[in-house]
């Protein structure tokens, strides 16, 4: 049986996410394993075309990994009839234009998020996908990670009883760049370039909350720029015009219609004192669970201890030891790669991807609502998006 090959133009491949997660940890391993296995047992192979604005950097990456095709011509790659898919991991401010051009050229698209700088643009992208009939996928990597896969399984099994709340902690210290180089690009801290914690992470939190618990109905948020001055990749000082922390409270419609309160703190100005860079705790009447990217521990109602508050005595209760690890019960590959494989199967089958541009638009909607809530000091309700 002949193996079909899909050619993928990968834009923004010199960036941290485009290079590390999508090229090195997803597409190249798919190539090395001989492609993606389809339902009928046949395989479809992929062929990456690396795209970037800096020819020296793109060529170096291509040579390092033995990738034959690379270019600085994004428009030409989009127009090339031999290219099947356009992937985008470039700057947020450029993304809507790239995705629009690709879909109008009949290309399937797979993209990082946010998909646009405004909700209006994000909805227009979803409408265009509907009009063109291409398959569109938006990175929802966290839902494929072992910790959240286990957490979702507990929800599906009714482990929690009536779900009450979710608490999330995300973030780490991003160095300012003056003495030690920053581990995130400088545009992340410039609002005019599409940067900002709320714009970046509320898109993630929307699909995490949807994927684990249910749809977000409202938000109260406070956004802050804790570090007002940073230094860029050239060592030059610049004002941070975007928020580097966001503190949000979300009202969720749960699996059985129950109201769930979620609180998520997101900060690039916090030092980590937790097991992973992001952790979520879900509490319910029958049990609780704490999930990171890889691990998940749970505590049932019958195994819940009965602490007594007494500030006059030292704590002797071994709280962490009272939780049990939730098993994976299966092999869980890299989340980015798993979604790429699912998306490729959808492209070959000519069907919609479950995490599409409409899901992405809801993420942009939540980010806009979070910024509005912070600016106006009020609770903002989210209306359903209709195409």
Question: What are the key terms here?
Answer:
alpha/beta; nine-stranded mixed sheet; 25% strand
Tell me about this structure.
The chain is an alpha/beta fold. The protein is built from nine helices and 18 strands. It is globular. The mean pLDDT is 96.
Would you kindly provide a brief summary of this structure?
The protein is an alpha/beta fold.
Unreliable residue stretches = none
In order across it, which strands form the biggest sheet?
A: 17-16-15-14-8-13-12-9-18
What's the number of helices?
9
The overall average pLDDT, rounded, is 96
| Straight-line distance between termini | 41 Å
Shape: globular
Number of strands: 18
Beta percentage is 15-25%
Task: Assign the structural class, choosing from mainly alpha, mainly beta, alpha/beta, alpha+beta, or little secondary structure.
Answer: alpha/beta
Largest sheet: 9 strands, mixed
The oligomerization state is: single chain
What's the helix-strand series? Answer: EHEEHEHEHEHEHEHEEEEEEEEEHHE
Proportion of residues in helical segments: 25-40%
- The radius of gyration over CA amounts to 22 Å
List the helices and strands and how they pair.
Elements: E1 4-11, H1 16-32, E2 36-37, E3 43-51, H2 55-65, E4 69-71, H3 74-79, E5 85-88, H4 92-104, E6 108-111, H5 119-132, E7 136-138, H6 146-156, E8 163-171, H7 197-212, E9 216-224, E10 229-231, E11 237-239, E12 245-253, E13 259-267, E14 278-284, E15 287-291, E16 296-300, E17 324-325, H8 335-349, H9 357-376, E18 380-381
Parallel strand pairs: 1-3, 1-5, 3-4, 5-6, 6-7, 8-13
Antiparallel strand pairs: 2-3, 8-14, 9-12, 9-18, 10-11, 12-13, 14-15, 15-16, 16-17
């Amino acid at each position: 049986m002949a193996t079909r090959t899909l050619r993928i133009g990968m834009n923004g491949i010199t960036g941290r996410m485009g290079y590390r997660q999508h090229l090195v940890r997803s597409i190249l391993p798919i190539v090395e394993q001989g492609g993606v296995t389809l339902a009928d047992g046949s395989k479809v192979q992929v062929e990456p075309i690396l795209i970037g604005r800096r020819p020296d950097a793109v060529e170096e990456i291509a040579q390092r990994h033995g990738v034959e095709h690379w270019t600085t011509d994004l428009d030409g790659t989009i127009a090339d009839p031999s290219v099947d898919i356009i992937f985008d991991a470039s700057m947020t401010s450029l993304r809507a234009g790239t995705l629009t051009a690709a879909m109008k050229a009949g290309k399937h698209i797979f993209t990082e998020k946010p998909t646009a700088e405004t909700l209006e643009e994000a909805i227009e992208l979803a409408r265009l996908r509907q009009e063109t009939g291409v398959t569109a996928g938006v990175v929802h990597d966290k839902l494929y990670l072992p910790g959240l896969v286990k957490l979702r399984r507990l929800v599906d099994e009714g482990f929690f009883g009536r779900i009450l709340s979710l608490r999330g902690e995300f973030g780490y210290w991003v160095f300012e760049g003056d003495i030690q180089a920053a581990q995130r690009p400088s545009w992340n801290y410039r609002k005019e370039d599409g940067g900002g914690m709320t714009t970046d992470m509320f898109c993630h939190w929307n699909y995490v909350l949807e994927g684990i618990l249910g749809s977000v109905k409202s938000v109260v948020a406070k956004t802050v720029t804790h570090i007002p001055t940073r230094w860029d990749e050239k060592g030059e000082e610049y004002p941070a015009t975007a928020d580097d922390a966001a503190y949000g409270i979300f009202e969720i419609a749960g699996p059985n219609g129950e109201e769930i309160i979620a609180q998520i703190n997101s900060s690039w100005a916090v030092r980590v004192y937790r097991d992973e860079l992001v952790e979520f705790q879900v509490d319910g009447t029958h049990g609780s669970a704490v999930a990171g990217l890889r691990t998940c521990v749970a505590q049932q109602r019958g195994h819940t201890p009965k602490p007594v508050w007494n500030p006059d005595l030292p704590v002797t209760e071994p709280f962490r030891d009272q939780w049990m690890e939730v098993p994976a019960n299966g092999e869980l590959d890299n989340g980015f790669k798993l979604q790429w494989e699912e998306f490729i199967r959808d492209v070959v089958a000519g069907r919609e991807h479950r995490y599409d541009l409409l899901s992405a638009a809801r993420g942009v909607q939540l980010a806009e609502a979070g910024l509005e809530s912070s600016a106006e000091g009020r609770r903002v309700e989210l209306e359903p998006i209709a195409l």
